Amino acid sequence: MDQNEITSRDRALFEAGIKLGALYHQFMGMPVSIETVDRLESAIEKSVSLQPWVDLVKVRIDREKLRANENQFKYCELSGEMLDVEVVVTYDHVEVHARIRYDEEMRYPLMRIEKVSTV
User: Fold this and answer.
1) CATH number 3.30.1300.20 given to 8-118
2) Residue 4 has pLDDT above 80, yes or no
3) Which end of the chain is more exposed for a tag (fewer CB within 10 A), N or C?
4) Contacts of 101 (CB under 8 A, 6+ apart)
5) DSSP for residue 111
């Protein structure tokens, strides 16, 4: 194999990263409240699941952090520290599990690959 050849594994990993990056930058700053949080989770899941090779999207927004950041009008803006998102992408028999979750130690919404397997 040519060392410059892009493999199915490379492509699957790239696709998972692109999904997470797009999700993060598309939805940060969205107004959210306790009354709308379920619908926002669902909207994010449905939006990302439309993209090619996505098998699963699971979005959880931390309700405690949401409440802690509410303004006088009982809503806040979605931030990276509120997110826990799992995405599964399958490309040509390679399955990638990727995630965005706030890392308390780093104080950063870290995107990571959690698992790569052949299916």
Assistant:
1) yes
2) yes
3) N
4) 83, 84, 85, 109, 110, 112
5) E
